[in-house]
Amino acid sequence: MNTQTITIDFPSDILLALNATEAELKQNIMISLAMRLYRLQKLTIGKAAQLSGLSRFDFETLLSENEIPISNLTLEDVMGDIKKLR
Predict the structure, then answer these.
(1) In a domain, 9, yes or no
(2) What is d(CA 24, CA 19) in angstroms, rounded to the nearest whole number?
(3) How many domains would you assign to the chain?
(4) Of 6, 11, 77, 80, which has the fewest CB atoms closer than 10 Å, so is most exposed?
(5) What pLDDT was estimated at residue 71?
(6) 38-45, long-range: CB within 8 Å, 24+ apart, which pairs?
(7) Is pLDDT at 10 greater than 80 in this prediction?
C-alpha cells in the first residue's frame, strides 16, 4: 500500500493535556477523520476502515457505537430496489 505523509502542527501541550502518546493521538485522529469522511459520504465504508487502520468489522462496530448508520441507503433507495425486483 502506498502512503503519503501529512504533517500537522499541534501546540506542544496537547499531548500532555490529553495524557496520550503521539501514536495514540495519531490513531485517534485517523479514526475520527475516517468516521467524518464516511459520514459525509466522501469515502466508502471500506476505504474509511482502511484509513482508520481498523478492520472493516471493527470500524463498523465503532460506527454503531457512535450512532453513525452503517448503510447510507435512503427509504427511496430501498423502495426503488423493491420496484426493480418486481
Answers:
(1) no
(2) 10
(3) 1
(4) 6
(5) 81
(6) 38/63, 38/68, 39/68, 41/72, 45/70
(7) yes
